Fold:
Amino acid sequence: MPPDADPLAALALSSPGSHGILFAFLLFVIPTGAGIPAGVLLGHRIGLTAASMSGLYVGSGLLRAALFEPAFRWAERRRHAGGWVGRWRDAGQALLARHPMLNRALHGAWAPLVVSYNLDPMAGRVAAAAVGMGWMRGWSLALIADFAYFVSTAVPTLWLQRIFGNEWLSLLLFIALSMAVPMLWRAARKVAHS
Structure:
């Protein structure tokens, strides 16, 4: 693919040095699953080491925590006032009531770890507060789990890129596999338990 047809190549070539690092950081800040592999591939393209990318990701988590915590505290103060915050709380309690295994897994220190790894650190912070953890312990556990998710995303992304030599194919394969493997796992467990 010519460089002008590849947006990632164009971004990497047009933004060497600090601009490329800023773009990788911003991709890490995006609270979606695709931000991590895209940021890792961009960081790899501009020559960042694994330690540098890890540092950028930790920094992005700290930025998200600093931006989210004031909004969370505001919502926490309003939770007894009803409205949308109360409806979200009621929906979460109803979900836990329907799934006893999930309810048991989300108590104690496991709550922010499980939720943050599977969703994002902001949801992990909410889970930590739901089980009575303070902000420091809650964010620490949520960010640790989120970093574990980063590692479990970055390593296969770079491995796929090394095998196929194409960032876009690697990104699409990673996203497809991250959706297909859990579905296949659930189907295999359902067949095994039948």
User: Anything to note?
Assistant: The mean pLDDT is 80. The CA atoms of residues 75 and 85 lie 7 Å apart.
